[in-house]
Amino acid sequence: MTPAEIAALLSFAAAFDRRTLGEADVLAWHTVLGDVTFDAAKAAVTAHYAVETRWIMPADIRQHVLKTRADTAADIQGPGLPPEIPDADPDDVPAYLAAVREQRHRAADGLKPRPVKELLAGIGRQIPNQNPNEVAAVRRPGPLGITCPNCRAPIGRPCRTGSGRERAPHENRETAALQPRTEETA
Ligand SMILES: [Zn+2]
């Protein structure tokens, strides 16, 4: 919020509690709530005076905004709810992580999932250059953490050893996974 928006917010609060306002109040509130949007803060004031008689303080607004963000995110991606499918190729790790991150932010902001049209537009686009550090950060231990030297199954994918449900990795892959990691030839 800008100082002008803080002043508007305080006037809105004053309509409920009849507080008197000065420039010092605006400055003090701006110090605490400069990063909160006017709409979110106004919603917090409304929610406060729906259930409280004591004067609202900046901390009340911060807490309300944080709780609202957490609640909204939980509504979209909470326990027992199916997560949205991120709009990215799972083999393209950096893009996939970016999509999940973006999705969580949208959820916390109370925005709807991206429309299908937008998702379809992502099909067939160029895969961005992989950042090796980001790939390394999500690398998992065990045979699936490396490309199989036998069947060239990529990282994270089971070996091509048959169609059964439990596809055991090639022995070479298990042995290779135990070696200290140097450079990966994927
Ligand atoms: Zn294999």
Q: With helices defined by DSSP (H or I, 4 residues minimum), what is the helix count?
A: 8
Provide the low-confidence segments as ranges. none
Total E-strand runs: 0
Beta percentage is under 5%
For this structure, the quaternary state is single chain
Strand count, sense and barrel status of the largest sheet are: none
H-E string? HHHHHHHH
CA radius of gyration is 26 Å
**In total, how many domains does the architecture comprise?**
3
Shape, per Cα inertia axes: elongated
Distance between the termini: 49 Å
Helical proportion?
Answer: 40-55%
Query: Which ligands appear in the coordinates?
Result: zinc ion
Mean pLDDT: 78
Account of the protein in words:
With 186 residues, the chain is mainly alpha-helical. It has 3 domains: 3-73; 77-138, no CATH class; 140-178, no CATH class. Helices cover 52% and strands 0% of the residues. The chain has 8 helices and no strands. 15% of the residues are buried. The model has no long low-confidence stretch (mean pLDDT 78). Zinc ion (ZN) binds next to loops.
